[in-house]
Sequence to fold (269 residues):
Amino acid sequence: MLDKDIIRRRLETGITFAEFTYTLIQGYDFLWLYENKGCILQAEGSDQWGNITTGLDLIKKKTGKDAYAFTMPLVLDKYGNKFGKSEGNALWLDRNKTSSYELYQYLINVDDEMVISYLKIFTFLTPEEIMKLDKSNRENPHLREAHRALAREIITDLHGEDAYLEAVKISESLFNGNIKELSVKQLEDAFKGIELFVAEEGNLVDFLVQFGICSSKREAREFIGNGSISVNGDRVTDCSFLVSKSASIGQKYVVIRRGKKKYFIGKFQ
Fold:
């Protein structure tokens, strides 16, 4: 173990017992799979090479037979960070953990310099189709054709075409301010993971300040006066407007949009 670079480097700065023994546990996993499930090949990301070779050594010493392994390059973001739970940027295949809308929003907003690489890795588009999208991405980046293709291909493969079309509808409805077009379920999918505030009926100016949407009543009046505040998709310019549960979405949610992209969602008790 001390001959492994990953262990030796960490000993200089400090390593926990769990980290030190992780390679042994993964090696034993490979041995168990080899002996009980007939698994002779382990495939991992390139950062797991040291752990895989521990399994190869253990299998050879325990059984006298050979097993095999290969690694593949990690999929990274533009900053060189890998995707996963430890990085806090995991994208789940299960739509109950990462909804189709969340996945759509992530994919449609990936960095321009990464989108073609992701199309090559994650989709079954032909090289000719990807080259065409690459050209569009360079010449007309504002159209985001490559990003839309990435979202369409991945979501359709994972969740189905209906889920993709619903994600597009939710995104367009929110962008256009047409929140009333959305069902309560679609609204919940759109704001999944966003902290809700406990909404209370009252004057809009007080409401905006109370829930931190505006920093002061003066700022709230300014936003309302210049048409920057929408309540459940309707632009409000009257400072005496009352936020009420009876006029909420499904008599449950109130959605405030400040400006073009800043959304806040409250839930009535």
